[in-house]
Amino acid sequence: MGLDYNKPTRKCAKIVGETMGNYHPHGNLAIYDALVRMAQEFSLRYPLIHGQGNFGNVDGDSPAADRYTEAKLSKISEELLADIEKETVKMRPNFSNDLKEPETLPGKLPNLLLNGATGIAVGMATNIPPHNLTEICDAVTEYVNNPKVTIEELSNIVKGPDFPTGGLITGPGIKEMYKTGKGRIIIRARTELEEDKKGKTSIIITEIPYMVNKAELVKTIAQLATDKKLPDISDLRDESARGKVRVVIELKKGVDPKFTLNKLYKLTNVETSFDANLLALVGRQPRVLNLYDIISEYVKYRQLVVRKRSEFDLRKAQERLEIVIGLLIALKEIDAVVVLIRKSDDTKAAHEGLMKKFGMTDRQAKAVLEIRLQQLTHLEVDKLKEEEKKLKELIAELQKILGDEHEILKIIKREIAEIKNKYGDDRRTKILRRVDEITEQDLIEKKDVVVMVTNSGYIKRVDMKVYREQKRGGVGVTGTDLKDEDFVNRLITCSTHDSLLFFTSRGRLYWLKAHDVPASERQSKGKALINVLDLRDETIANVLSVSDFDKGYLMFVTKLGIVKKLQVTDVAKPRSTGVRVMNMPADGSDILISVMRVADKQEVLLTTREGKAIRFNADEVRSMGRSSYGVKGIELNTKDEVVSLVPVPVKDAGKISILSITEHGYGKRSALEEYRLTGRGGKGVINIRTEDRNGDVVRSLPVTKDSSIIATTTKGMMLRISVDDLREMGRATQGVRVVKLKDADRVADVVLVPDEEVVVSM
To answer: Which comes out higher in pLDDT, residue 756 or 227?
Structure first.
């Protein structure tokens, strides 16, 4: 149809009709879809067709019907068709056997890598990503200069795919694709952060991953925000215009955009993957090719095309030289030629006479008979002589090219350089050095929280910052709104990235991520624990927060003073149904009351309800399996029972004191050195003198003067206190008032604030 880049466009309906009638006897929709895709700047890195009209967009809107749109070839397409008229490719009959069509195109442009390819056939599929023309041209030049170049050297030139929609790419799959022909590439949208005058941060998406529908992406983000899966998003706007992508994701004030971005990567097409499979036909055989193979096959094909082109040019030059020589002979003997022609009876006789008398060839004689009178001038003779000279030089050059393969390679190298200079551009897709796989923790903001478990089985999570520190004797703030018969019996301070280990009174263990605990307001009662954990008919005895499972031990202690040590690695694999970690007596005479993490050569302190304490080395308890019961840790009086297991820090133990809080709100702090080191199984020493005034011991903690504690009562009151407000006392004292309790209220639990928590050296 002659629709070159420098010609006017024509209706796509006419192009589709021509194609269907002459070359492709199938539906017009398939033909038009192919035409449209080759004109879309967001589908092809270097569009092969120049379209005029509505050819669709990144929002997935359909193009206008073919009767409304117009098209022609783009300028770069001439590099695919160059020299097709010089018998460079094999031609075959079309389906109706009245026209010829090429089996392949001359392909000066390395289109397979530049625009990629996607297709499915019987038993095979290909998915080749687009690339940057400048990099591919440089790689071809490097191969021509050094055919023994390695894949690694080529992949240093071709950095990675270059998608028309830009974005960011990463992943080991890039190098793997170039090395083996297969690999997974991670594609991310390009984003920016903007902050307005009110201090609100917005995530701006300026480029989207390849083949992602922008409208669907915005719709997905909006739905996730509505479903509270992206809770930090306050507003969403698509401000894209004139081909420029701009999606504004406005965040709530004070939130960290990093976690919202990670959730967008995990939950939406802001991050996608491209599974590359570099499969192509080589000699009609499908093959998976690496980068070296594709470039070498391209160069081999171009060598064949350049050779055929040179042979065609040589043949045409020789034919023209033959004619020029014949014309020069005729002009030299022009009078005799004219007489011979005038005396001839017909054209055939004149033709034979010229061949016989002047020794002309058939082609020369025919050219002389067709010469016009205006060519008999002296000027025309000079032109013919100049043409003869140039033709002889061209023939010599072409014969040199055909006689030396290195000359053909020089031509390929020169032509690829010309293509680079004409069409080369900068990369659109940025390559990141590496991007770590998004883990569950990357989606959750790391912050300190308080997890509360009530006696009737409710659990909730509250940010640590809602509790302000008060002086000794303060009345506290409401920590949870409970029923009259319920009270808080477990209080854990941890990070949202920690794992919570729930130990039951019957020696079973359940796992739960801290961020999976339902977040609640300070006054709410939380969520029923049976809706969070798959509990059996048992109660939670203790909850422990763990940040890693790499090393160390778990030390267990029961109400009757039995202790057990278990390697942390033995509980590193969570099970939704829980596992048994301590084999408790079947008659229910003993229950698990505390679990702590300890290290080798670390000392521990057991404290009892009646104010006794024993200090011994944890190494005296050997590491056991999950199915064992344990050994005796302390000799108890008849009515006494263990209330706390306190691990003694390996380092800086001299700075540690033991804080014990009683149920009537009294507390006492004693230096650690006052508790002498003894063997396991003894009766221990006095920890605090317990009487009716202060009540039984609730819990003992290792603290420093810089520590803070949070105490909670059975009626839900909470108080945060600085340990520095409590002076050190002797062991045999009753302590001072720490929490001012209301009538019938008592202290239920005490815990250290995590920022100032005593760190156990592992």
So the answer is: 227
